[in-house]
Amino acid sequence: MFAKRSSKFAVLATASVAVAALTLGALPAQAFNPRSEAGVTATTIKLGITTPLTGSAAPGYSKVPAAMQAYFNYVNDNGGVYGRKIQLTVKDDGYIPTTAVANAKSMSNGVLAYVANLGTANNNAIAKSPVVGLAANRIPSIFINTGYSGFADRTKFPTMYPIFPSYIMEAKIMGQYIKENFAGKKLGLIYQDDDFGSDALAGFKTAGVKFDVAIPYASGSQSAAAGAGWVGKLKAAGAEVVVMFGVTSATGAALGASAVLGYKAQWILGSVGGDATTLKALGVPAAVLTGSIGASFLPGTTDTKDEYIKQFQDVNAKYNAGASFDNNVLVAMNSAMLTVEALRAAGKNLTRDSLMAAIEKKGATFASAAFSPILYSPTSHVGYSGYWFGKYDPSGAMLPDGGTYSLYTTDSGAGAVVKATIKRPAMPAKGLPNNS
Amino acid sequence: MLKSKPIRFLLLILVAGVLFLLGNVLPDYRVYEGATASIYVIAIASIILLTGYSGQISLGHGALMAIGGYAAVLSRKYWHTSGVISLIIAVLAAALFGVILGYAAARLRGPYLAGTTLALAVGLPSLANQFHFLGGEQGLNFDIGAPPKFLGSNFSTTKWYFWICSIAALIIFWLVQNLLHSRYGRQWKAMRSAPVSAALAGINIARSKVLAFIISSGVAGLAGALLVMTLNLVTPSEFPLSLSFAIVTGAVLAGIARLPGAVVGALIIVAIPDLADQIATKIGGAERISANLPGFITSLLLILTILFAPNGAKIGKLVSHGSTRT
After folding, report:
1. What is the rounded CA–CA span in Å between residue A48 and residue A41?
2. Residue B29 and residue A30: Cβ atoms within 8 Å?
3. How far is A397 from chain B (nearest CA, A)?
4. Which of A234, B18, B145, B286 is the one with CA 20 to 30 A from B321?
């Protein structure tokens, strides 16, 4: 019996090894490029993105890769970048850091750079993972989809280039707006209980805004039931103005619950969770959203008088398989345009280092739809720095207060919030970058 | 038994040799996947021990992995323990939690136990957001250091992690294998198949259940610590509910009552996203397809397994030994 057991164990061990070898061998060979530069050939430029396409954070954000690819396809059809076509490798991480790191690792030798990776925790995990070696291998991670202020620290994250104004900036600017418009009102705040939220708390503190009730929620815990709990607390505290500083699914849960429970307050939605199309898809009634205040650094998605919006809508209609044009699509196409400008600025001899050098030297001059200036320089990895405020109309469009865009800018430190003049570079002809 | 032990040991050495060779010839990313698969082998082994042998259901082993992960990180951060000691502390901390959980589990059965452990998986990791010393959502760093110098300057961190994880998996495999063939393993099988008869035969059912939970928790804790090691970071979002489900799925796919199935289950879980990517690329699908394909393939495999091979897929049967009756 024991001998039989041993022989079976022998079969087991051999078969296990065989399965391991076969499975690993049968899997596709890594797109390993032994050349000095990964992701670049004479005819192609490969970029990679890891982002949630499934899971709790997916609503809205899952539209980002397709919108970026749509813009890249538009550029590719018009000659590409110095003749090279851009290919975007897309990986779903479900908003889970472990998966994001595995995705980044799988792409690390095959792409020139990561572009628009989403989420504070995921970007942090990728940056700190020794198996990815973001800094050690000089892999650029450009125009990341998070406003966590820490990523602009060039010493800690030398190859990361955030583009959004930081959450500290957003909270400071929002604080100034609240002081100007809602002085003396009872204030409420819902925020994500992580670095996203701690940045917000720091910004509001610097702005000198104190909330009568502040409700943290753990990332991933947002649900209709949780939303009802938040609204119950807001109601009990008598909050008249509520800032929702969370992801879209959490914003949807809060607004949905306020509709069900008949809670009326002036909502102010942070830029991260304020996409009207996604909120409506999550079941938020238009009546609740109408009149809510939102913040953005880009023009309103329905502002067809704006040349960038008009061009991006056109690209979206032709290249994005009928996707509705919302803020996620706009942000994605704007980042895609910046990417093309960065690739062009890096020149024909494209390398990871030349790409990063180009962003640092010329990034401040890149044309983009944002009203805010870009602050990249050899000593700064800070992207945009400003917001404007508007109100949602019954169609879900966000229109500027008073009909004209009024921009506030600031920094992530103790600097003042100032009303700034909008000086935006003109859009390159047909939305096709021609910089060098 | 005495005759078979040296042979098993030699076979493990042989497997270690093959893994060593694989680590040298495969591309870096495949080696990283190998480390992940090894972690899954350990986690799935903990489920097989608990569910397949002692008959207790747990849908919350992701939470036990989180305990192991945080214990390893905290011990290194505050007590400056070495990598090995941190891993041992992870095992002990999770096992200690297993004592508490085991006593609760001994009073619960079937869906009630599944529900309790499920709640644990949902709630426990997010506790880290409530206590500052646990680092919140951004987590805490966990760096066990660079590979030893004698391995050479070209020895990558990925390979170093692969070595640690695969050696840990082999050791756990060896220990659990021997445990399942010991008096305790036989008691668990008896308890699972016929609890009344087992009790009449003198087996202390409650004590056996608690013991199974303690050992299973300790093993899961090790898997959690290794997962944290490969990321250099511990955060609550590394231990989502889907992780707990993935481990149970892996165990069911290759035969819940067969320890060797852990290897097959782990490889399937690690390979599915790649497989889905290939299929999506071939059929020219958008990312919407490739994103949902892994879940679809896993669900399909799970349904097919339960319909046609409830004791595990054929490969599991081929390589299994001992009783597989459930």
Report:
1. 15
2. yes
3. 26
4. B18
Write the residue in A5, A32, A106 that is nearest to B4 by C-beta.
Answer: A5
Positive/negative CA dihedral, B97, B98, B104, B108: positive
Strand-pair partners of A252: none
pTM, entire model: 0.80
Domain boundaries, position A19: 2-31
- Give the closest of A128, A131, A219 to B137, CB-based: A219
For residue B273, which residues of chain A lie inside 8 Å, CB to CB? 102
CB A110 within 8 A of CB A38: yes
| A324 is a domain residue | yes
Residues 275-294 of chain B with CB under 8 A from chain A are: 275, 278, 286-288, 290-292
CB distance A436 to A383 below 8 Å: no
DSSP A326: -
Provide ipTM, 2 decimals.
Answer: 0.75
Q: How many helices (H) and strands (E) does chain B have?
A: 13, 2
Which residues of chain B are within 8 Å of residue A95 when distances are taken between CB atoms? 237
The per-residue pLDDT for range A180-211, each reduced to its tens digit, is: 999 999 999 999 887 788 889 999 999 999 99
Give the CATH number of domain B5-320; options: 2.60.40, 1.10.3470, 3.90.1530, 3.40.600: 1.10.3470
User: Does residue A298 fall inside a structural domain?
Assistant: no
Q: Extract the residue ranges of chain A whose pLDDT is less than 70.
A: 1-36, 220
Domain count, chain A: 2
pLDDT digits (tens, 9 = 90+) for A249-271: 899 999 999 999 999 999 999 99
Q: A14 and A118 in one domain?
A: no
